Amino acid sequence: MQLTFTHHGYQILRDPHLNKGNAFTSDERIDFGLRGLLPNVVETIDTQIQRVEEQVDQFDKPINKYIYLTQLQDNNQTLFFRTVMKDPAKYFPIVYTPTVGEACEKFGHILRRPRGLYISIADRGQIRDLIRNWPEADVRFAVVSDGERILGLGDLGVCGMGIPIGKLTLYTACAGIHPNQTLPIMLDVGTNNEVFLKDPLYLGLKTPRVRGKEYDDFLEEFVYAMTEAFPKVCIQWEDFAGPNAVSILAKYRDRICTFNDDIQGTAGVAVAGLLAACKYNGRPMTEQRFLFFGAGSAATGISGLLTIMLQEHGLSYEEAKKHCWLFNSGGLVVASRKNLDDYKMVYAHEHPEITDFVEAIETLKPTAIIGASTIGGAFTKEVIEAVARINERPIIFPLSNPNSHSECTAEDAFTLTNGRVLFASGSPFNPVTVGGSTYFPSQGNNVYIFPAVGLAILATEPEHVSDQMFLWAARALASQVTEEMVTRGIIYPPISEIRAVATEIAIDVATRIFDGGLATVDRPADIAKFVKSKMYYPEY
């Protein structure tokens, strides 16, 4: 934000958009009434980052690092983003997964300064006025949650606000979306979390969750008010319970610019990893078979994108679907199962019932098992050994977050397969050494996909967001993985290069949006230059 003479003294130092701390020049200190309010030295942003890193490193617990960085963001936005972008591999696990899970669980106890909008179902009839209290007029991305299914932790109510905040931090750090164009939103419809209902420091409505028509009408009023206040906004739905996630996306995807990251973003990053892994497991894509442990919106979302991709490889829709199998608490999802949700029935194939996952592996002979269950340790020794027996290069993706809910550890996967596994997890794991070789487990984090797709949306302003855009992003991401990376256990590009990776994906997706006539802005002569011109870089 540009300083003007209407800003003065303490007002500047208390505004995170304006504050530069000791980096204010001597002239600026005179012009804006800052003399005497700061130590005499004029620092560079690099010196300030050095101080930040020294202070962060003094904390042993990740949650304390998270609290410190949150306070930095509330104090000096530019310095916060510059610090995070300097070392993404170090800071992403702090500002997002896995630490954000603990931050959400403790949100009511660690909150210093509210961020974003909290819209309660008690605000029905007034949501339009409430949204207009937001100080920024050009919001392009709103990450919205009702807190019912936060990571693998379940119903955290308004304490789930850490997720929208964290996701939008990644929009900026990875893809250069200006932070002033982002808005985290928590929809408070109550909670069924008994611990929170009894906690005097819980910040939300202490009532059971609202369901049915009242919930639907609340969302309808919210969507109408948002699109009226911010005509170019893209709404990203985040961490809704499975049935709501599916139904909300289905209801609004053809009406407004919107997507669900748990469904489409997760699908994009998983398919990218599978594309990279399948390239090196010795079988063409049409011979791959995918078995999911978990049958919620993430598993069906990945299956849906795989189905689209397999159709592009020449299979019919019915043939493509049969390459994706689901397994949940009731066993293998088959056509004879009763009381299945409609979105699960799509992948309920004709087959005898199987209630044991190892038996399902031995019967179906999948080339890949993908965890989307939030059940920690579900990929047991027997499971890993079973999939390794039938595949020279078994693909094992325990994608659930945080680490405590991961279906297996990287150490188990690499050790039990003697390093043969093609592995990706939802949360980060440390390197693993097996038989004298060291492998660097990949993290199949949505951060590779949604910020890049967001940048393409920002540049092209499409009216709607399609599944195809996420497949384009997946292919662009997979194309950046080399054979040398795979030999070291890496099937996603290094997080340290995430800004460059996201930029290339965004350019590719934006080009395809223009090619398909889906953009609402004029096609530029140089799309790459045009996309890059939309990116924010934190500097004074």
Describe this structure in words.
The longest helix is centred in the middle third of the chain and has 18 residues, at 212-229. The chain has 540 residues and is of the alpha/beta class. It has helices at 10-13, 26-31, 45-56, 62-75, 77-86, 88-95, 99-105, 107-110, 127-131, 162-175, 194-197, 212-229, 242-252, 261-278, 297-312, 317-321, 342-345, 357-364, 381-389, 410-416, 450-460, 467-478, 483-487, 498-515, 527-533, and strands at 117-120, 141-145, 182-188, 234-237, 258-260, 290-293, 324-328, 331-332, 368-371, 395-398, 422-425, 432-434, 437-439, 442-443. The N and C termini lie close together (9 Å). The model has no long low-confidence stretch (mean pLDDT 95). The strands form three sheets. Strands 8-7-6-9-10-11-14 form a seven-stranded mixed β-sheet, sandwiched between helices. The chain has a five-stranded parallel β-sheet with strand order 1-3-2-4-5, with helices on both faces. It has four domains: 10-95, Up-down Bundle (Hemocyanin, N-terminal domain), CATH 1.20.1370; 101-261, Rossmann fold (3-Layer(aba) Sandwich), CATH 3.40.50.10380; 265-445, NAD(P)-binding Rossmann-like Domain (Rossmann fold, 3-Layer(aba) Sandwich); 448-519, no CATH class.
Give a summary of the structure in a few sentences.
This protein is of the alpha/beta class. It has 25 helices and 14 strands.
Layout of strands and helices, then pairs:
Elements: H1 10-13, H2 26-31, H3 45-56, H4 62-75, H5 77-86, H6 88-95, H7 99-105, H8 107-110, E1 117-120, H9 127-131, E2 141-145, H10 162-175, E3 182-188, H11 194-197, H12 212-229, E4 234-237, H13 242-252, E5 258-260, H14 261-278, E6 290-293, H15 297-312, H16 317-321, E7 324-328, E8 331-332, H17 342-345, H18 357-364, E9 368-371, H19 381-389, E10 395-398, H20 410-416, E11 422-425, E12 432-434, E13 437-439, E14 442-443, H21 450-460, H22 467-478, H23 483-487, H24 498-515, H25 527-533
Parallel strand pairs: 1-3, 2-3, 2-4, 4-5, 6-7, 6-9, 9-10, 10-11, 11-14
Antiparallel strand pairs: 7-8, 12-13
Helix pairs in contact: 4-5, 4-7, 5-6, 5-10, 10-21, 14-15, 14-22, 18-19, 21-24, 22-24, 24-25
